Amino acid sequence: MAEPSIQRFDTRAEFQRLLAAVLERAQVSLELFDPDFALFRLGDPDVDAILRRFLAGGGQLRLAMHSSAHIERHCPRFLRLLRDYGHRIECRITHKGIHQLTDSFCIADSLHLVRRFHSDHLRGEAAFDAAQETDIPRERFAAIWEESKSGVHVSTTGL
Known about the structure:
About 35% of the residues lie in helices and about 25% in strands. The chain has helices at about 10-25, 45-55, 70-75, 75-85, 130-145; strands spanning about 5-10, 30-35, 60-65, 90-95, 105-110, 110-115, 125-130, 150. The protein has an 8-stranded mixed beta sheet, with helices on both faces. β5 (about 105-110) and β6 form a beta hairpin.
């Protein structure tokens, strides 16, 4: 096992580079929370390719969000991914009572993490091969997941 490493970031480019690095390391599970996923580039070809490889290999993807509007309007590739791998993807919309939560994170295999401390800002950190760093975010994700309802479904009409 590799030595744990933590990298701090404060720009969009660094966040997206580290997010891609976390996504690429995922083999079994990805758990993501963000108010709207606008900065996660879920509709971009490179992110789509990473997620397709992950899902084709048997991975499970779970997303929790306050609003699905950005994904529904701006991420047709993600909606196709959801259509193609709906059995491996679950998206949930949070209850209004927890809409005050403003952090943002992605956890891969309970081992790698990228998080922004506030979704309105780009300051954050990424941790690789650092299971201990994912403990609190995993607990937080589980609590958010429990307070959410199913959302973002693809049907024969498109959504």
